[in-house]
Amino acid sequence: MRCSLVLFLLSACTGSGLSHEGVGAYDGWTPPAFRADYEALSAEQGAELLFDLDVPAGTTVLYVATRGGEGNADLAVRQADTMLCTSDGEANDEVCAVWDPPAGPVQIALFATEAFSGVDLDHELAGVPGPEPETSDTADGPCPADMVSIEDWCIDRYEAHLAGQSPFEVPSSGVAQNAAGAIPQGYISGIVAEAACEAAGKRLCTATEWRRACQGPSGTLYPYGNTYDPEACNVGRTPHPVVELFGSNADWSGTQMNDPGLNQLPDSLAPSGDNPGCVTAEGVYDMHGNLHEWVADSAGTFQGGFYVDASINGEGCTYRTTRHTYGYHDYSTGFRCCADAP
Description:
It is globular and about 60 Å long. The chain has 4 helices and 21 strands. A hairpin with a 2-residue loop joins strand 12 and strand 13 (153-156).
């Protein structure tokens, strides 16, 4: 089966066809609710269903997902001989998010690792420009608009993502940005996080700066106060995502701990600012849970906990992990940047 698609035109194939929908430009992007562009797809084992589309210049995200059905359909997005994204979990809840996809013809492929039936396919295209660096005066002095002024330094308002890169892949470099609604970068080492902040004209926060920002001017235990609120921040997810994704095959290896699917499971990693109650008195979001955040310590330290555990190594803003090297990374490791106030 092969279907050709043209932007903003319905497919010439039988059925509803993939409809391309341009998502409005804004600083950050959240995957939309699933809607079936193709329904009840099926193929025999070893077969491949191919869908061609034309990606316009300026597209920032090509998002493709499958849901439901029986059997095993693996998902891939490719251009000519270049593989842009693959998702090959055991179930048919596959997701591929290609950031800054190449303009021109791109192919979506569903491969029948096992014979499958009843699988639905969805996709979206979005043009999302990165946030423009601006400055604004705060009560304590000027900081960039995406940062909060704390005493004589600045801290990112939200957990960082990398400009033009998938937040679900292990990065080797990048430029740090932060914005409400953006998916923050997991899978990152302290070494790469430090370099990404520097590439943005910032730096990693010191451990002292990070805790001061989390506790606010009153020194509270949690970003929002001294009394724990289980609903305020993205914490306490069960089951563990490694167990959910790999089941009895979970071996906690580096490969599994860096699987792109972990942070794409339902109720796992949240977009920046998605928990409005998880904010400090000075307006810094998500410092408890969601992702661990690296601080400037070459021996290896991250703070704050993540969406599964935010209490084993300390409550609230006191959470601190020191067991890993600065080069370590897995699905739970993220970061945000600081800077000296101008």
